[in-house]
Design brief:
The structure is a single chain. This protein has a domain of about 280 residues: Penicillin binding protein transpeptidase fold, CATH 1.10.3810.10. The chain has 18 helices and 29 strands. The protein has a 21-stranded mixed beta sheet that branches. A two-stranded antiparallel ribbon has the order 22-25. It has a two-stranded antiparallel ribbon with strand order 23-24. The longest helix is centred in the first third of the chain and has 48 residues. It is elongated.
């Protein structure tokens, strides 16, 4: 095939040649002038940058020598950066920087070469101050700019470009020290012996804490195409961060971590970053996470991050891999006009055993060795608009297909179907062994528990116990709303099933791992019908904490009223249900004559009315047995005078783990719904105002001593009573 011949008039060729010639001559003239003035321009630019650093950040920047060593290479010596009234941040003995000329013409500073020899970066924290505080002190240019709306996508695009522009084509760094000193209690030092970039290949040798370890940060860099592939690993040992152990009491290590950025650019109105992150043999140990090491042998996430005008999101096209299991997460955080939190998780239907095997080692201690068959699918969705927290949306569903338990793991989840030994813990220590079965005279079969107590506690703690499958999503949803509004944990979503599992099967540490294990065990028990509802309720009634070293409904009814559980009237049933959230303060709810204090009357009316509407008790306008509750005579000697007001807010919260945790560990249902008195953080004894005016400090101290003595006598009597029981 022959292309048609194009005839261009000679005059146009001449005009083009003249134009190119003129452009070339102008470039030569401009380059010559710039070259001759470059030293002066350099000094002017450096002076301007040093002044701006001082004005905007309070940084004192000094450069002893600076000058060009080539067409675009700047050589500097003895550089120092000192924040005002802080320790020196940076010192560099010798540094050469090369800048690409063509991008510079269009206002972009792209590094072509960096050579650094001997330098240090010292980060120092002293009390609440540090030499990095200047980052937060940049002055706003003007009010209009500070109030202008920021497009997060554009901001991310600009920041990423600035970061990539600072990656040079060639780099040679020797003897650079990065040290962190945190109040002289946690220190870490990284000595970069050498680090190079040659033809996009990064290699480095980093000595940690004076030869404690040798790290390598290696990989390939292609900033022009917005592509990175970097791996961090250590020689002959895991990468460890002892700084976290000293600072946060956290053990953290891994074999390798790899970060990849595959692409970055606009996708519609969103700025999209595509990449992946993977890690090998990640080990975490923190007392809030688990009591033991948690190990993740192999984890990876293929992530698509979307940054819009007012939000940041992890797109649902992302995938998390744990061994052979996979999950698709979706996370979105919207900043304006209201803060909105969105979470979605989808684990497509997959082999149940493979999913179980993919859980981190040490996460579910009691399920180790469990063998199952069938398939499982999991869906979770959560949506909370900060402007309308009560409208929070929540759904969580674990869907089995032909799921069966083939072999028990470390713990037999059906052990409570027959007689077993329960050991309650207080302040992290075992109290005593309690036989849950007929051989214990205090054990009470469900058929011998008064319906007054059974209906009262189900009404206050878990009204849908006999119909739900371990969880009440509406209760969990409402707890999210309440806790968000209060900015603290004031309401939980635990059912009786969850309370029973955490006490009968799990360790006493309050950790995230234990909570996750509790949820999984509840699902296994409820969905596989391993334990009947009646048996679960029977065991719950017999292990529930109901006072200082008082466990189970059998002990409680004899302790407070000298009765059997079958003899409880409606008032006594409601009272015992009331003390479940905070059992150790039960005696402080009685007056000196053995009757209940008046502040409990609204609670009785509230719970009683609910029970009456459900046909569980006859309607009663006199308080549903409030006036018929009387403490047995033998305990009244330990009650305080009616004039004393006791702040008992931490009587139960001092324990690392109460024997039975409820939906709300600090409030009754009535308090959770209608609010209660504000709490002080320190338990104390106060006296009414009229009494204070009549008593001297000496008399008040004497009353406190007597009160403490009565409490001690009460505890001794309780201990003696337990020892005398068969």
């Amino acid at each position: 095939m022959h292309l048609p011949k194009i005839n261009i008039p000679k005059k146009y060729i001449k005009i083009g040649a003249w134009a190119l010639g003129i452009f070339f001559v102008l470039c030569v003239i401009f380059g010559t002038v710039a070259y001759s003035k470059r030293e002066a321009l350099l000094k002017k630019m450096m002076s301007k940058a040093i002044l701006k650093a001082d004005e905007d950040f309070g940084l004192q920047v000094k450069i002893a020598e600076a000058g060009f060593t080539g067409l675009s290479m700047v050589h500097m010596k003895n550089i120092s950066v000192v924040p005002k009234d802080r320790d020196t941040l940076t010192t560099i003995s010798d540094m050469t920087v090369g800048v690409k000329l063509w991008p510079l013409i269009f206002g972009d500073v792209k590094l072509s070469q960096v050579i650094l020899n001997t330098g240090s970066v010292n980060v120092v924290f002293k009390d609440s101050l540090s030499n990095l505080d200047f980052i937060l002190k940049r002055k706003k240019k003007n009010n209009r700019e500070s109030k202008s709306k920021i497009d997060l996508g554009d901001l991310a695009h600009n920041l990423l470009n600035q970061l990539l522009y600072k990656i040079p084509d060639d780099m040679e760094v020797k003897n650079l020290i990065l040290s962190v000193n945190d109040n002289d209690t946690a220190r870490i030092k990284f000595f970069t012996r050498d680090a190079t970039i040659v033809d996009g290949e990064l290699k480095s040798v980093i000595i940690v804490n004076d030869n404690a370890a040798t790290w390598h940060l290696n990989g390939t860099l292609n900033p022009g195409s917005k592509q990175l592939d970097i791996m961090l690993f250590a020689d002959n040992k895991p990468v460890e961060l002892p700084y976290l152990n000293h600072k946060l009491n956290t053990k953290f290590s891994f074999d390798t971590v790899r970060t990849q950025m595959k692409n970055a650019g606009y996708s519609g109105d969103d700025f999209k970053i595509e990449g992946s992150w993977s890690i090998k043999n990640l080990l975490i140990n923190h007392p809030k996470i688990a009591a033991n090491d948690i190990v993740i042998p192999d984890a990876k996430i293929d992530a698509d991050v979307l940054i819009g005008p007012n939000y940041v999101a992890l797109d649902s096209s992302s995938t998390v891999f744990l061994k052979q299991a996979s999950v698709h997460p979706y996370l979105k955080y919207t900043l304006s006009p209201n803060k909105i939190y969105e979470v979605k998780l989808l684990a497509p239907e997959q082999d149940a055993q493979q999913l179980l095997n993919s859980f981190p080692i040490g996460l579910f201690e009691s399920l180790e060795g469990l063998k199952v068959s069938g398939k499982i699918r999991y869906d979770l969705s959560f949506y909370l608009d900060s402007a309308m927290p009560d409208s929070v949306k929540f759904y969580s569903g674990l869907t089995p297909t032909n799921f069966k338990i083939l072999k028990w793991g470390k713990t037999n989840l059906q052990k409570i179907n027959k007689e077993f030994i329960y050991t309650p813990y207080e302040r992290g220590k075992p109290m005593r062994n309690i036989v849950i079965g007929p051989s214990n005279p205090n054990f009470t079969p469900l058929s011998e528990v008064s319906s007054n107590f059974k209906n009262a506690i189900l009404t206050s703690e878990d009204p849908s116990f006999f119909t739900h499958k371990g969880f009440v999503q509406e209760s969990i949803r409402k707890s999210f709303a309440v806790n968000f509004k209060e900015k603290r944990f004031v309401r939980g979503g635990s059912t009786i099933s969850m309370q029973l599992v955490k006490n009968a099967f799990l360790s006493r540490q309050k950790t995230l791992a234990r909570k996750a294990e509790e949820i999984l065990i509840v699902w296994l028990i409820e969905n596989n019908h391993l334990i009947s509802k009646n048996r679960m309720l029977e065991v719950y009634f017999n292990i529930i904490e109901m006072g200082q070293n008082v466990y189970g409904i059998g002990e409680a009814t004899r302790h407070y009223f000298g009765k059997t559980p079958a003899e409880l009237n409606i008032g006594e049933g409601i009272f015992l249900a009331n003390i479940v959230p905070r059992p150790k303060i039960a005696l402080y709810k009685f007056r000196g004559d053995g009757g209940l204090k008046d502040y409990l009357y609204p609670y009785f009316r509230y719970i009683g009315n609910i029970m009456a509407r459900r046909g569980l008790t006859p309607p009663d306008s006199s308080g549903y047995g409030f006036y018929n509750v009387h403490l047995r005579e033998g305990l009244r000697q330990y009650l305080l005078p009616d004039s004393a007001e006791i702040d008992t807010n931490s009587f139960d919260s001092e324990d690392p783990l109460p024997a039975i945790e409820t939906q709300d560990e600090s409030k009754t249902l009535f308090d959770r719904l209608f609010g209660g008195p504000k709490k002080d953080t320190i338990p104390k004894i106060t006296i009414t105002s009229d009494t204070v005016r009549k008593k001297t400090r000496k008399e008040l101290r004497q009353e406190r001593r007597e009160q403490r003595k009565r409490e001690q006598e009460l505890q001794e009597a309780l201990d003696k009573q337990k020892k005398e029981q068969p």
